[in-house]
Q: What sequence folds into this?
């Protein structure tokens, strides 16, 4: 009897170490109770450094036993109400097109240092493509172990942009784990990627035919690049003619809105080196509502976002800073105090991240060769980013 009790206590302790969760019924900016089941929490993925990944889990509104389960590395079931910021917390509304209406979706802030994920030791932030992918795999194993009712759900791994490198790698790790009988056995069915990164050299060179196809560059420039840049590294060309042609190419590319090239160009609302000095479209000039919000947040916004025009596609991104850095939001989500000082959207160099996965092609080949389904969709965007958090201190 005593042995059973000790075993039970040990199991409970391990479960607690693997995951700490909170059921969220209300969120700042949204009126009334949430019309779906939302759980947030942390899962420790590296005991040595104390690395914990933050997640949001939305249970499908569809119900039923065969509802797909999707690990998605970006996105969410809400969207911001696009209206002039007035110093109060931005308003949320339900996204009518959210996949959570038909699938269980587990959103994860990854890699370490993105969103509200954090490490207790500085070394925990030194991650890269491979190490962060392995952490995500460990995260999923532990999360499913703590939520066994979803073990039999058809599992898909998904993400867009830079996650295009990560997703097929994780799918392969799950497939390999199932082959050797690692418990729990995950019911992997396939994966999907949107606007996916494949590898730096491949992606850089593919921008040229992409831009040509959309009429950003002329036939003449396109043919010049093809003629002089064969076998060249497009980021560091050694051929003088190639370098000159690529210089012209990048100059033309700078005239379009990279996150969505079919929209008119406006300020990209992400933290920059010094947004105060950027005066385009009124960017960087603080308005009274911004100052009031920073005071309410205890001056949390040390890297204030660039303010785009209201009709810019990025205006909702601007609103996200004020929502995510509000203490009421953090309290509602169960963000641990002292872990992330400032929530910063899409800032390159936010953490010492290593791009050590040169190409994801072999992982696509390996996973699809084993019979798993795959979807890859490319839209009109050629930029990627992450949402970074900054630790206190």
A:
């Amino acid at each position: 009897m005593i042995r059973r009790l000790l075993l039970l206590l040990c199991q409970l302790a391990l479960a607690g170490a693997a995951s700490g969760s909170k059921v969220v019924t209300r969120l700042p900016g949204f009126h009334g109770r949430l019309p779906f089941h939302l759980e947030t929490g942390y899962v420790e993925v590296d005991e040595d450094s104390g690395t914990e990944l933050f997640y949001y889990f939305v249970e499908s509104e569809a119900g039923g036993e065969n509802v797909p389960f999707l690990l998605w590395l970006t996105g969410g079931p809400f969207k911001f109400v696009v209206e002039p910021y007035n110093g109060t917390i931005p308003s949320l509304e339900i996204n009518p097109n959210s996949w959570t209406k038909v699938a269980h979706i587990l959103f994860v802030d990854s890699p370490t240092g993105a969103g509200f994920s954090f490490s207790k030791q500085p070394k925990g932030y030194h991650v890269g493509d491979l190490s962060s992918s392995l952490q995500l795999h460990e995260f999923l194993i532990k999360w499913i172990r703590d939520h066994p009712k979803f073990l039999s759900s058809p599992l898909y791994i998904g993400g867009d942009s830079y996650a295009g490198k990560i997703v097929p790698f994780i799918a392969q790790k799950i497939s390999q784990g199932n082959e050797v009988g690692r418990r729990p056995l995950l019911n992997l069915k396939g994966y999907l990627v949107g606007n996916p990164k494949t590898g730096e050299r491949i992606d850089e060179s593919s921008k040229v035919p992409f831009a040509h196809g959309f009429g950003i560059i002329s036939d003449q420039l396109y043919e010049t690049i093809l003629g002089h840049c064969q076998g060249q590294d497009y980021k560091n060309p050694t051929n003088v003619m190639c370098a000159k042609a690529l210089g012209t190419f990048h100059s033309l590319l700078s005239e379009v809105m990279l996150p969505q090239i079919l929209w008119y160009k406006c300020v990209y609302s992400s933290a920059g080196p010094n947004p105060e000095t950027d005066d385009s479209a009124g960017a960087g000039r603080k308005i009274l509502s911004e100052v009031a919000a920073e005071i309410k947040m205890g001056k949390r916004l040390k890297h204030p976002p660039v303010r785009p025009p209201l009709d810019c596609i990025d205006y909702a991104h601007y609103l996200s800073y004020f929502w995510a850095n509000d203490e009421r939001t953090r309290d509602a989500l169960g963000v641990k105090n002292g872990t992330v000082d400032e929530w910063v959207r899409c800032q390159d160099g936010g953490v010492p991240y290593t791009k050590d996965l040169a190409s994801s092609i072999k992982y696509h080949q390996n996973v699809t060769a084993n019979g798993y389904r795959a979807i890859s969709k490319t839209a009109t965007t050629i930029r990627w980013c992450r949402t970074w958090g900054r630790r206190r201190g």
Notes: The longest strand covers residues 38-46.
